[in-house]
Amino acid sequence: MWHEGEGGLEAHEFASLICDYLETISSDVEVVTMWSDGCTYQNRNSIISSALLQFIDSGKKPNLREINQKYLCRGHTQMECDSVHASIESKARRIDIYTPMEWETVMKTARVQKPFKVITVKHTFWKTFTPILNSIRPGRKAGEATVTDLRHILYCQNGEMYYSLSHGTPVRPLLIRRNLRLNSDPVQRYDGPISVAQKLPELLQLCSMIVPEDRHAFYNELK
Known about the structure:
By secondary structure, the chain is α+β, with helices and mostly antiparallel strands. It folds into 2 domains: 11-192, no CATH class; 195-223, no CATH class. It has 7 helices and 7 strands. It has helices at residues 11-22, 40-43, 46-58, 80-92, 100-109, 200-209, 216-220; strands at 31-36, 66-71, 127-128, 152-156, 161-164, 172-173, 187-188. The strands form 2 sheets. Strands 1-2-4-5-6 form a 5-stranded mixed beta sheet, covered by helices on one side. A two-stranded antiparallel sheet has the order 3-7. A hairpin with a 4-residue loop joins strand 4 (152-156) and strand 5. Helix 1 packs parallel to helix 3 and helix 4 (80-92) packs across helix 5.
């Protein structure tokens, strides 16, 4: 978790999260399969694909041969994370929450058995990934398949990509157009905390109205 003074909601942020998680998997893992919804700016774009290609080529997990990225179909989008969200919302229903740190406490205590692991990240966590791909669209002409038609993308250790437009059907080569070499490393995304100047007056006004005084320090430190 993070608040908008520490990070944004662009493809680079989501690529940073995915790659950070992949670094935690066992070195014995050979195949990874990820499921996500069809949100294009989060999960289905050339930045995410570039990041996954860079990761599998980096040698950080030398036994990792394949990364499968699969997308849920409309009407069949129930995921394990839905129950996570429901537990958190239930826990927070009768609690007054004024700062992100209080949300962290709610998340950590939302489930008694097997509590959720919560990682709070700062602006120093994020990376900017080199867009080594121009596009991941399978088609080239009007009327041909677009990015939103993708249901499965397969990333291979040799740098090749494959795709399918429906689940359960064989994948075919995705003829990708590259910008740069595959080994372009990500760089630090932010030099410091992100400004929330446009919202800050209203946030400080809330401090004078409803936010308890002992929570004001968080808002006073925003830029």
